[in-house]
Write a structure and sequence with these properties.
Elements: H1 8-13, E1 15-16, E2 22-24, H2 38-44, E3 48-49, H3 52-61
Antiparallel strand pairs: 1-2, 2-3
Length: 65
């Protein structure tokens, strides 16, 4: 049986932690930043975790992680 292909878009967007959780980048930090407050931008720096329901879907997109 041939190898399964990983979704390249998902590979670039998500990383898996050592405990198996899926990390993601927070949205809203790419442009139009002057109107957003300091506190809001500071909180957007930190990565978020994907919910358990979404993790199952992402695992299918990235089979070898």
């Amino acid at each position: 049986m041939p190898k399964m292909k990983s979704s390249r878009g998902a590979m670039k967007r998500f990383k898996v932690t050592a405990t198996g959780k899926v990390k993601r980048r927070r949205s809203g930090k790419s442009h139009l930043l002057s109107s957003k407050g300091r506190k809001r931008k500071r909180r957007l720096r930190h990565a978020g975790l994907v919910s358990a329901q979404e993790t199952k879907t992402i695992r299918k997109l990235i089979p070898y992680l």
